[in-house]
Amino acid sequence: MTIFVCDDSVDGIFTGIYDAWASRLGHSCVGLRIGREMELELFAEYREVGTDPEKAEKVARSIREKMGQDAYQTIYQAALSRQPERAECIYRVVVRGMSSGVSKKEARNVIWNLQDPNVCRTFELSRKTGNEAHRYIEFVRFRELENGVLFSEIQAENQILPLIGEHFADRFPNEDFMIYDNGHHDCLIHGKRRPWFILRNTDPDASAKEKIGKKEEELQDLWRSFCDTIAITERRNTKLQQQFWPLKFRRWMTEGTASERHLSAQKRHGNG
Question: Which of 136, 152, 210, 252 has the fewest CB atoms nearer than 10 Å to its CB?
Fold first, then answer.
């Protein structure tokens, strides 16, 4: 067994697919793993794969042309997952859809063949990543820094920044904003009337991101007061609230701070 070891990125996985296919060792004799997440196997030969954007684009284009846009979107979102088996599952799905002898119609139906374990797992990973991205679109909160930049911090399980960039760029086309994912150390950056991009393996200046303007501070106080005022203590249902507003999001939300303070006060007075 020859195992190709790729980088932890969409381009890295797609480059690994290209090299594994081009090796002509036979699909049953090769595997694809994420470098930092793999476990060593006995009697296996390992080959490092250097990420090549051109090779990755060729694979992406081939998937779109033969397997269709739906399949590409599913595979792309699965590649953004944090699960270590994603590279191997995606490779097997691509092999099944693009092998010689497979008609275009059959190739486009591969992604819906959930009886195949690799297709099913790829579909699951894609759905979980997409769902998390959708929730962050709802829960992202910006604060205006002293320099006028809108800044937000999140801690996502999967690499969801590529999935939410277009939404916020459309919503704030005339704003300079940043969304920092401290779980992956990636930063989505958008300039006024400019395309957004993602800067990987970076950390914003810790002091700069805490310096907010006086107006922003006043608005945060008003928002917290509003959330506290409309809350009805007697009708509080923390379990139901957590279903719609999970605890993991609250640390990074302005009103989350108010809610947690309110809950702590209840507990202190024996009402929680």
Answer: 210
Residue spans of alpha helices (H) in 99-175? 104-109, 117-139, 161-171
Say which residue the tokens 């051109």 belong to.
Answer: 54
Query: What span, in angstroms and rounded, lies between the C-alpha atoms of 67 and 119?
Result: 13
Report the DSSP beta bridge partners of residue 190. Answer: 177
Among the listed residues 204, 271, 190, the one whose alpha carbon sits nearest the alpha carbon of residue 238: 271
DSSP secondary structure, 176-232, as one string: -EEEEETTTTEEEEE-TTS--EEE-S----TTGGG-B-HHHHHHHHHHHHHHHHH--
For the residues 91-109, what does the mean pLDDT come to?
Answer: 88
What is the per-residue pLDDT for 159?
95
DSSP 115: T
Beta strands in 191-243 (DSSP E): 197-199
Give per-residue pLDDT as tens, 191-230.
998 999 999 988 888 777 778 878 888 888 887 888 778 7
